[in-house]
TrEMBL record:
Pfam families: Glyoxalase_6 (PF18029)
This protein's record includes keyword Cytoplasm: no
PROSITE patterns membership: VOC (PS51819)
Keywords for the protein's UniProt record, in alphabetical order: Dioxygenase, Oxidoreductase
GO MF assignments: dioxygenase activity
Name of the protein in its database record: Glyoxalase/bleomycin resistance protein/dioxygenase
Domain VOC residue range list: 21-135, 149-264
PANTHER family in UniProt: CONSERVED PROTEIN, GLYOXALASE-RELATED
Length: 271
């Protein structure tokens, strides 16, 4: 595995991500210990304790850098097990109010996560769940571009137009549509840089999941990593294939959390 390097990007001096930038991904699972073991074996993660406001929670580390969070759902909570992206905000309270104003729903918070920051969990008008993160001591994912790190977030929904308006009103994204005929795909941009994408899949949207955010994790070898997922008790949803930005495979962990493995080969700057 390529050694991860924490970037010298000013975080220590209090720099924050531009509002709307995906800055963190988190997973709430029923069996925290087993989930930690799965991702440790797949990505080489180690763990350190994180904020406990919503129950037991750990931060996944790669060579000393924070890359993701994993928490434990209460036994009586039967929620879908899914990776959730957190979008940066300068004020989680104001962002939560804007979510409601724009037709979304706030399910948790805003609440303080110790000294780490302030957070809320919301859903857009199509039902896709995402987090809002107002950073304090915890800035978010501290390394990117190496295997085991989140590298992209994509919203899968029935159609892009209406839901993209929601996110545009919420965070001021500009949009760049795909030029391929028949492809309902938008890149969300901040300061003219691509930060996330929205894909309209029509009737192909899974009936058991509905609209949802997909997290992409970098992998050194997508085919081998997909095989490893199966060995560890997960399963493959879409076998490895060459995609628009690299080789990809969509998989699920043993509790059913879906994510995509990618070996990035092409920049997203063109959208």
């Amino acid at each position: 595995m390529t050694e991860a390097r924490c970037p010298d990007d000013g975080r220590a001096e209090g720099a924050r991500c531009t509002p709307g930038t995906p800055c963190w991904v988190s997973l709430m699972a029923h069996d925290l210990a087993a989930t930690q073991e799965f991702y440790a074996a797949l990505f080489g993660w180690t763990y350190e304790p994180g904020p406990q406001q919503l129950g037991p929670y750990v931060r996944a580390m790669l060579d000393g850098c924070e890359v993701a969070g994993i928490g434990q759902l209460p036994a009586d909570r039967h929620l879908p097990i899914a990776w959730t992206p957190y979008l940066a905000s300068d004020d989680a309270g104001e962002a939560a109010e804007m979510v409601r104003h724009c037709g979304g729903t706030v399910g948790v918070g805003p609440l303080d996560a110790g000294e780490a920051g302030r957070m809320a969990i919301a859903s857009d008008p199509a039902g896709a769940v995402f987090g809002i993160w107002q950073a304090s001591s915890h800035r978010g994912t501290a390394v990117a571009g190496v295997p085991g790190t989140p590298t992209w977030n994509e919203l899968l929904t029935r159609e892009t137009e209406e839901v993209a308006k929601f996110y545009q009103m919420l965070f001021g994204y500009t949009e760049k549509a795909a030029t391929s005929p028949g492809l309902d795909y938008l890149t969300l941009r901040l300061d003219d840089l691509p930060v996330a994408s929205v894909r309209g899949v029509g009737q192909e949207l899974p009936g058991d999941r509905g609209a949802h955010w997909m997290t992409y994790f970098e992998a050194a070898d997508v085919d081998a990593s997909a095989e490893r997922v199966v060995e560890l008790g997960g399963h493959v949803i879409s076998p490895a294939q060459d995609g628009r930005y690299g080789r990809i495979a969509t998989v699920a962990d043993p509790e059913g959390a879906v994510f995509t493995l990618i070996r990035s080969e092409h920049p997203r700057a063109s959208g």
